[in-house]
Amino acid sequence: MPGRAATPADAAASCSFGGWLEFVWVRFDESFEAVLPLVRQSPVTFYQVVDSGRAHPSYRTPAAVRNITCGACCRRRFVPNRGRETPAYLHYMAERYDTLPQWVAFVHGAPHGTRHTLHRVAACLWREAPPEWNAAETVPDYVPIVPTTYVAHRDIHYRDWEPGYAELWRRWRSSFRPASAALARDAIDDPTPHLPRQHTGVRNVSFECCAQFLASRRALRRNPRQVYEVGLEVALTFDGANPIKASVLDKASNFGLNWAGSAFEHIWHVLLGQPVHIEKHCNPCASEDSGQRGMGNPNASHGPFRCCATTTGSCPAD
Length: 318
Prior knowledge:
Blueprint: H1 8-13, E1 21-27, H2 36-39, E2 44-50, E3 74-80, H3 86-95, E4 103-108, H4 115-124, E5 142-144, E6 149-154, H5 156-175, E7 205-209, E8 213-216, H6 217-220, H7 225-237, H8 243-246, E9 249-250, E10 253-254, H9 255-265, H10 268-271
Parallel strand pairs: 1-2, 1-4, 2-3
Antiparallel strand pairs: 4-8, 5-8, 6-7, 9-10
Protein backbone atom coordinates (compact mmCIF):
# COMPACT_ATOMS: atom_id res chain seq x y z
CA MET A 1 0.00 0.00 0.00
CA PRO A 2 1.58 3.28 -1.05
CA GLY A 3 2.36 5.79 1.70
CA ARG A 4 0.24 8.90 1.87
CA ALA A 5 1.65 12.24 0.82
CA ALA A 6 3.02 14.52 3.50
CA THR A 7 0.61 17.22 4.63
CA PRO A 8 1.14 20.62 6.30
CA ALA A 9 -0.04 19.00 9.52
CA ASP A 10 2.78 16.47 9.24
CA ALA A 11 5.29 19.28 8.76
CA ALA A 12 3.90 21.18 11.74
CA ALA A 13 4.10 18.06 13.90
CA SER A 14 7.76 17.58 12.99
CA CYS A 15 8.62 21.27 13.37
CA SER A 16 11.80 21.58 15.41
CA PHE A 17 13.88 24.69 16.04
CA GLY A 18 17.51 24.45 17.05
CA GLY A 19 18.38 21.47 14.85
CA TRP A 20 20.26 21.34 11.58
CA LEU A 21 19.01 24.34 9.56
CA GLU A 22 16.75 27.34 10.05
CA PHE A 23 15.84 30.35 7.94
CA VAL A 24 15.53 33.97 8.98
CA TRP A 25 13.37 35.92 6.55
CA VAL A 26 12.83 39.69 6.84
CA ARG A 27 9.79 41.03 5.01
CA PHE A 28 8.69 44.53 4.10
CA ASP A 29 5.69 43.78 1.88
CA GLU A 30 6.94 40.85 -0.22
CA SER A 31 4.90 37.68 -0.60
CA PHE A 32 5.95 34.51 1.20
CA GLU A 33 5.81 32.79 -2.20
CA ALA A 34 8.99 34.71 -3.08
CA VAL A 35 10.97 32.82 -0.46
CA LEU A 36 9.04 29.54 -0.49
CA PRO A 37 11.29 27.82 -3.10
CA LEU A 38 14.22 28.36 -0.76
CA VAL A 39 12.60 27.76 2.63
CA ARG A 40 10.35 24.82 1.71
CA GLN A 41 9.43 23.11 5.00
CA SER A 42 12.44 24.29 7.00
CA PRO A 43 11.87 26.12 10.29
CA VAL A 44 11.68 29.85 9.62
CA THR A 45 11.69 32.92 11.84
CA PHE A 46 9.71 35.55 10.00
CA TYR A 47 10.45 39.19 10.81
CA GLN A 48 7.80 41.67 9.72
CA VAL A 49 9.00 45.25 9.32
CA VAL A 50 6.37 47.48 10.88
CA ASP A 51 5.93 51.13 9.99
CA SER A 52 2.89 52.58 11.73
CA GLY A 53 3.40 55.89 9.96
CA ARG A 54 2.36 54.53 6.57
CA ALA A 55 -1.01 53.37 5.32
CA HIS A 56 0.03 50.33 3.31
CA PRO A 57 -2.40 47.59 4.45
CA SER A 58 0.17 44.77 4.47
CA TYR A 59 2.31 46.22 7.23
CA ARG A 60 0.34 49.05 8.82
CA THR A 61 0.19 47.45 12.29
CA PRO A 62 1.24 44.10 13.76
CA ALA A 63 -2.42 43.08 13.83
CA ALA A 64 -2.58 43.46 10.04
CA VAL A 65 0.05 40.78 9.48
CA ARG A 66 -0.67 38.22 12.20
CA ASN A 67 -2.33 35.87 9.75
CA ILE A 68 0.24 36.07 6.96
CA THR A 69 1.19 32.57 5.84
CA CYS A 70 4.83 31.74 6.40
CA GLY A 71 4.85 27.95 6.36
CA ALA A 72 3.88 25.22 8.80
CA CYS A 73 7.02 25.69 10.91
CA CYS A 74 7.17 29.42 11.54
CA ARG A 75 7.80 31.92 14.31
CA ARG A 76 6.76 35.56 13.86
CA ARG A 77 8.57 38.63 15.11
CA PHE A 78 8.13 42.36 14.48
CA VAL A 79 10.85 45.00 14.04
CA PRO A 80 10.74 48.76 13.45
CA ASN A 81 11.16 49.98 9.90
CA ARG A 82 14.70 51.23 10.40
CA GLY A 83 17.99 49.79 9.16
CA ARG A 84 16.52 47.46 6.54
CA GLU A 85 17.14 43.81 7.49
CA THR A 86 19.99 44.46 9.94
CA PRO A 87 17.99 44.84 13.19
CA ALA A 88 16.11 41.61 12.46
CA TYR A 89 19.31 39.65 11.85
CA LEU A 90 20.89 41.04 15.03
CA HIS A 91 17.76 40.38 17.08
CA TYR A 92 17.71 36.75 15.98
CA MET A 93 21.42 36.31 16.75
CA ALA A 94 20.94 37.70 20.26
CA GLU A 95 17.62 36.02 21.06
CA ARG A 96 18.64 32.59 19.80
CA TYR A 97 22.26 32.69 20.95
CA ASP A 98 21.86 29.73 23.33
CA THR A 99 19.58 27.68 21.05
CA LEU A 100 21.06 28.23 17.60
CA PRO A 101 20.77 25.50 14.96
CA GLN A 102 23.93 24.26 13.30
CA TRP A 103 23.26 26.55 10.33
CA VAL A 104 21.14 29.64 9.75
CA ALA A 105 20.21 31.03 6.34
CA PHE A 106 19.62 34.80 6.48
CA VAL A 107 17.50 36.20 3.64
CA HIS A 108 15.35 39.28 3.09
CA GLY A 109 12.62 40.46 0.77
CA ALA A 110 12.52 38.45 -2.44
CA PRO A 111 15.78 36.44 -2.28
CA HIS A 112 18.25 36.81 -5.12
CA GLY A 113 18.00 34.40 -8.00
CA THR A 114 15.30 32.95 -10.20
CA ARG A 115 12.77 30.46 -8.83
CA HIS A 116 14.67 27.67 -10.58
CA THR A 117 17.96 28.75 -9.00
CA LEU A 118 16.39 28.96 -5.54
CA HIS A 119 15.02 25.43 -5.95
CA ARG A 120 18.53 24.23 -6.81
CA VAL A 121 19.98 25.97 -3.78
CA ALA A 122 17.27 24.56 -1.52
CA ALA A 123 18.04 21.05 -2.74
CA CYS A 124 21.52 21.44 -1.25
CA LEU A 125 20.43 22.66 2.17
CA TRP A 126 20.29 19.31 3.87
CA ARG A 127 18.00 18.95 6.85
CA GLU A 128 20.34 16.49 8.57
CA ALA A 129 24.11 16.42 8.91
CA PRO A 130 25.61 14.10 6.25
CA PRO A 131 27.57 11.13 7.66
CA GLU A 132 30.77 12.16 5.91
CA TRP A 133 30.74 15.58 7.58
CA ASN A 134 33.10 14.66 10.36
CA ALA A 135 35.81 17.29 10.38
CA ALA A 136 34.26 20.61 11.35
CA GLU A 137 37.37 22.51 10.27
CA THR A 138 36.76 21.48 6.64
CA VAL A 139 33.35 23.16 6.54
CA PRO A 140 33.05 26.88 5.77
CA ASP A 141 31.46 28.99 8.51
CA TYR A 142 30.09 31.68 6.21
CA VAL A 143 28.63 31.04 2.74
CA PRO A 144 26.99 33.72 0.56
CA ILE A 145 23.72 32.39 -0.90
CA VAL A 146 23.44 32.92 -4.65
CA PRO A 147 26.08 35.67 -4.77
CA THR A 148 25.15 38.36 -7.27
CA THR A 149 27.94 40.92 -7.20
CA TYR A 150 31.47 40.78 -5.83
CA VAL A 151 32.64 44.17 -4.59
CA ALA A 152 36.43 44.49 -4.28
CA HIS A 153 38.35 47.02 -2.18
CA ARG A 154 35.46 49.33 -1.48
CA ASP A 155 35.84 52.39 0.72
CA ILE A 156 32.88 54.61 -0.15
CA HIS A 157 30.83 52.85 2.52
CA TYR A 158 33.29 54.02 5.17
CA ARG A 159 32.88 57.67 4.19
CA ASP A 160 29.09 57.28 4.23
CA TRP A 161 28.73 55.41 7.52
CA GLU A 162 31.88 56.35 9.44
CA PRO A 163 29.90 57.87 12.37
CA GLY A 164 28.01 54.58 12.73
CA TYR A 165 31.13 52.41 12.56
CA ALA A 166 32.87 54.64 15.11
CA GLU A 167 29.93 54.35 17.50
CA LEU A 168 29.72 50.58 17.06
CA TRP A 169 33.37 50.05 17.90
CA ARG A 170 33.20 52.54 20.78
CA ARG A 171 30.22 50.74 22.29
CA TRP A 172 31.69 47.30 21.70
CA ARG A 173 34.95 48.40 23.28
CA SER A 174 33.20 49.81 26.36
CA SER A 175 30.88 46.78 26.69
CA PHE A 176 33.24 43.82 26.51
CA ARG A 177 36.56 44.49 24.76
CA PRO A 178 39.83 45.23 26.61
CA ALA A 179 40.81 48.87 26.74
CA SER A 180 44.13 48.34 24.99
CA ALA A 181 45.92 45.84 22.79
CA ALA A 182 48.31 45.12 25.67
CA LEU A 183 45.41 43.51 27.53
CA ALA A 184 44.45 41.37 24.53
CA ARG A 185 47.34 38.96 24.19
CA ASP A 186 45.05 36.01 23.55
CA ALA A 187 41.40 35.12 23.01
CA ILE A 188 40.85 34.78 26.75
CA ASP A 189 41.48 38.49 27.17
CA ASP A 190 39.77 39.58 23.97
CA PRO A 191 36.51 37.72 23.18
CA THR A 192 36.54 39.02 19.59
CA PRO A 193 40.14 38.71 18.32
CA HIS A 194 38.85 38.37 14.73
CA LEU A 195 37.46 41.92 14.75
CA PRO A 196 39.72 44.86 13.89
CA ARG A 197 40.80 46.74 16.99
CA GLN A 198 39.43 50.02 15.64
CA HIS A 199 36.62 50.89 13.25
CA THR A 200 39.24 52.12 10.79
CA GLY A 201 39.97 48.42 10.19
CA VAL A 202 36.90 48.24 7.93
CA ARG A 203 37.80 51.36 5.96
CA ASN A 204 38.42 49.19 2.88
CA VAL A 205 36.60 45.86 2.41
CA SER A 206 35.83 43.22 -0.22
CA PHE A 207 32.54 41.32 0.05
CA GLU A 208 29.68 39.55 -1.73
CA CYS A 209 26.48 41.53 -2.18
CA CYS A 210 23.90 41.64 -0.62
CA ALA A 211 23.38 40.48 3.00
CA GLN A 212 22.03 37.04 2.06
CA PHE A 213 24.16 34.29 3.58
CA LEU A 214 24.50 31.07 5.53
CA ALA A 215 26.25 31.24 8.90
CA SER A 216 27.23 28.36 11.14
CA ARG A 217 26.49 28.19 14.84
CA ARG A 218 30.24 28.22 15.40
CA ALA A 219 30.58 31.50 13.48
CA LEU A 220 27.67 33.15 15.29
CA ARG A 221 29.04 32.15 18.68
CA ARG A 222 32.48 33.42 17.78
CA ASN A 223 31.16 36.68 19.19
CA PRO A 224 29.71 37.16 22.66
CA ARG A 225 26.00 37.89 22.71
CA GLN A 226 26.75 41.54 23.53
CA VAL A 227 28.07 42.09 20.00
CA TYR A 228 24.56 41.55 18.64
CA GLU A 229 22.75 43.28 21.49
CA VAL A 230 24.91 46.40 21.23
CA GLY A 231 24.74 46.32 17.43
CA LEU A 232 20.94 46.15 17.56
CA GLU A 233 20.69 49.12 19.90
CA VAL A 234 23.06 51.22 17.81
CA ALA A 235 21.26 50.27 14.57
CA LEU A 236 17.90 51.38 15.97
CA THR A 237 18.85 54.45 17.99
CA PHE A 238 21.98 56.02 16.53
CA ASP A 239 22.16 58.29 13.46
CA GLY A 240 25.13 56.63 11.77
CA ALA A 241 25.22 58.34 8.37
CA ASN A 242 27.30 61.38 7.58
CA PRO A 243 25.14 64.54 7.17
CA ILE A 244 25.29 64.57 3.37
CA LYS A 245 24.37 60.88 2.99
CA ALA A 246 21.67 61.03 5.67
CA SER A 247 19.29 63.04 3.48
CA VAL A 248 19.65 60.82 0.41
CA LEU A 249 16.49 58.85 -0.38
CA ASP A 250 16.61 55.09 0.12
CA LYS A 251 13.46 53.69 -1.49
CA ALA A 252 10.58 55.16 0.55
CA SER A 253 12.89 56.18 3.39
CA ASN A 254 16.32 57.79 3.64
CA PHE A 255 19.82 56.68 4.57
CA GLY A 256 19.63 58.58 7.83
CA LEU A 257 17.20 55.89 9.03
CA ASN A 258 18.55 53.00 6.97
CA TRP A 259 22.30 53.49 7.43
CA ALA A 260 22.73 50.24 9.39
CA GLY A 261 21.37 48.13 6.52
CA SER A 262 24.08 49.31 4.15
CA ALA A 263 26.80 49.55 6.81
CA PHE A 264 26.42 45.97 8.06
CA GLU A 265 26.09 44.64 4.51
CA HIS A 266 29.76 45.56 4.12
CA ILE A 267 30.93 43.91 7.34
CA TRP A 268 28.78 40.82 8.05
CA HIS A 269 31.61 38.59 6.85
CA VAL A 270 34.10 40.37 9.12
CA LEU A 271 31.77 40.13 12.10
CA LEU A 272 31.47 36.38 11.53
CA GLY A 273 35.18 35.72 11.41
CA GLN A 274 36.09 36.09 7.73
CA PRO A 275 38.98 38.21 6.39
CA VAL A 276 38.24 41.87 5.72
CA HIS A 277 38.89 41.12 2.05
CA ILE A 278 36.93 37.92 1.57
CA GLU A 279 37.70 36.06 -1.64
CA LYS A 280 35.25 35.91 -4.50
CA HIS A 281 32.82 32.99 -4.24
CA CYS A 282 31.67 31.11 -7.26
CA ASN A 283 27.96 30.52 -7.52
CA PRO A 284 27.66 26.80 -8.26
CA CYS A 285 23.92 27.12 -8.80
CA ALA A 286 24.18 29.84 -11.42
CA SER A 287 23.51 29.19 -15.06
CA GLU A 288 26.51 28.78 -17.36
CA ASP A 289 25.91 32.09 -19.09
CA SER A 290 25.68 34.14 -15.90
CA GLY A 291 29.38 34.89 -15.65
CA GLN A 292 29.74 32.67 -12.60
CA ARG A 293 30.36 29.13 -13.77
CA GLY A 294 29.12 26.00 -12.09
CA MET A 295 31.27 23.75 -9.94
CA GLY A 296 33.28 21.54 -12.25
CA ASN A 297 34.61 18.84 -9.92
CA PRO A 298 31.76 16.60 -8.69
CA ASN A 299 34.09 15.00 -6.14
CA ALA A 300 35.17 18.28 -4.57
CA SER A 301 34.60 18.50 -0.82
CA HIS A 302 32.62 21.58 0.11
CA GLY A 303 31.06 20.55 3.38
CA PRO A 304 27.34 19.93 3.70
CA PHE A 305 26.24 22.42 1.07
CA ARG A 306 27.89 20.82 -1.94
CA CYS A 307 26.26 22.74 -4.75
CA CYS A 308 25.85 25.94 -2.77
CA ALA A 309 29.09 26.11 -0.86
CA THR A 310 32.01 28.16 -1.93
CA THR A 311 34.88 27.60 -4.25
CA THR A 312 37.22 30.53 -3.85
CA GLY A 313 39.43 32.26 -6.33
CA SER A 314 38.91 31.50 -10.02
CA CYS A 315 35.69 29.67 -10.82
CA PRO A 316 36.38 26.22 -12.25
CA ALA A 317 35.50 25.39 -15.83
CA ASP A 318 32.64 22.99 -16.47
